[in-house]
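Morning F.,

Quick status update on the modeling queue. The single chain you submitted on Monday has been processed. Sequence for confirmation:
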Amino acid sequence: MSLPGFVLERLAGDDAGTTVLRFERPDQLNPLSDATVAELHRTLDALAHDTPLRVLVITGRGRAFCAGFDLSEAAAAPGEDTLGRAAAWTARQEAFAGLVTKLRALRAPVIAAVNGLANGGGLALALAAEVRYAAASARFNAAFVKVGMTGCDMGVSWLLPRCVGLSRSFEMLLTGRMVDAAEAERIGLVTATVPDDELLPRALATARAIAANDAFAVWMTKRGGWANAEASGLAQAIELENRSQILAQSTGGLQRAAEALLTRKRSKA
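Structure tokens below.
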């Protein structure tokens, strides 16, 4: 399905349950325009209620994953004539940043397959994913400090330190420098770096491994992992884990898995 700035592809066969969202303006390095952001919100709202969805993979076409904000639209924000400049830019900022919280709120885990440049908002979208893989060609930076804006944008100032540590995060945010794929892997920004032609296969292999697990268990694991990233201490984290385990046990998934394991053992005896 082709939409403004990206395409959505539902996979079948061994990859059933996985949907690939691919940015599709390669001649412009896959920027985020206002129209693209609006359509991404509508798409994520629909995916939030898509029961067959088990994993969402985000990637880009061409030399970029996503180059961030479309600077050709920087002169004005939609609605300035009626809302005023401050209100219009606030609405735009909230729309862009809201993509990160919607990705996090999806029941399905998100895998970012970063195939090239991930600048500004592109970095933010990659950080919003639970798992990140980088092609050898991938490059990351927090770009806005380079154009007179703060590097703290779209949740990056919260997400980035949790991946790379506070000192490295500040260094990236304050300089806006590029981080190549090898460094990204070394500092924990991505899980692994692979040759460009192996990027999507690696992401899909992980998606299959996730989709092979119980959907409710995966959802609770994603939700619990994010919640405990903000936990104030060990006791609070364990309390949430305990409640989540009892809730998961009530679905019967543990009993079914135990019965299947016993059946396999008996068949081998």
